Every structure is written in C-alpha cells, then in structure tokens.
Amino acid sequence: MKRKIIFISFIILFSILCIFIINMKYKYSEPQIKVYNSVKKITAYTGSFCDRTKCVDKLSIFEINYEDYLSVIPGEKIYIEDLDDDISEVKFFEKTKEAEEFANINEEIEVNNEEKYIIAPNLNGTYIVLITSKYRNSNISYSFKVEIPLKDQNA
Questions:
Q1: Rounded CA separation 79/93 (Å)
Q2: Could you give the CA distance from residue 53 to residue 24 in angstroms, rounded to a whole number?
Q3: String of b and e for 58-88 (b: at least 16 CB within 10 Å)?
Q4: H helices then E strands: how many in the chain?
Q5: Does the structure show a pLDDT above 90 at 149?
Q6: pLDDT digit string (tens) for 93-146?
Q7: Torsion sign (Cα): 84, 87, 88, 91
C-alpha cells in the first residue's frame, strides 16, 4: 500500500513538472522596450537576437512599417523603459532623397545609461533610430521612428 501511494505521488509530481515545462515553452515572450518623451510613449520594434533557447531572425529595420512614432524637438531626451542592460550603440538613419535609401547621420548621439535616455540630434527630419544593447550572452537591437520638426523660429 505504501509503495502504491509513493508511486502515485511520483506520477502526480512528474505530471505537474511536465505541464510547467510545456507552459514555460509556450509562454516565451521576446524582450521589448518602450521609448517615450514628455508627450507620448511607444513600443520599439525588437530586432534579431539570441537567448538561451533559440535565435530569432527579424526583418531589417528598413523593412518595417513604422505605424507609430515619437515627435521630439531637437536636443530632447528620449527615455528608454524596460531595457535589461546598458545601451552600447545608437544610430539615427534618415532616408536620402536621391537614392531612396537610408543613411546614418553620423552625428554623435549622447547616451545616459544611468537614467536610460538618449538625446535627439539637432537636425530636423524623420529618422529610424537603432539602439543596440547586450542581451544575455548576445546583442539585441531595437528600432523606432522619430520625427524632429524644425525649431520654432519665432520662439
């Protein structure tokens, strides 16, 4: 009788463990960050990355249809929320009128890893912003769209 109870207990515990493992596999969610200023908050697109169990290959940042965007003034802080590690690189890409391609504006972007923000460049235009960070044992990238209007000349 005692063996039967131990056996049934073992089967129940094993079943619970299997259900837990299966649920963890299906509850996998990729890392996401939000970017915001004093007016609006949006979710950035997650780029390609690897974690402990698999690698995820995503579209190029230039192939994404950015439906939502941040409108910021030149030099404004763009805050990053839910980033696991420090920002290792930031690039602003603008679509060139001549070739209809994207080019890095090659302007040094100020990064504050303590308070998790970047400073928008002083150039007006529409940009795709690429943020690279460490993620577990690899790198991960995030992208989002920013519009920087001309500074008000009357101010």
A1: 18
A2: 12
A3: eeebeeeeeeebbebbeebbbbbeebeeebe
A4: 1, 13
A5: no
A6: 987 766 667 888 888 899 999 999 999 998 888 999 999 998 877 889 999 999
A7: positive
What does the block give as tokens for 72? 């910021």
What pTM does this model have? 0.76
Closest CA relative to residue 87, chosen from 42, 130, 29, 40: 130
The two three-digit tokens of residue 27, written as one number: 């509850």
Q: Is pLDDT of 26 > 50?
A: no
If you average pLDDT over residues 45-69, what whole number do you get? 87
The two structure tokens encoding residue 91: 């690039």
**Cα–Cα distance measured from residue 100 to residue 94, given in angstroms and rounded to the nearest whole number:** 10
CA 6 – CA 28 distance, rounded (Å)? 33
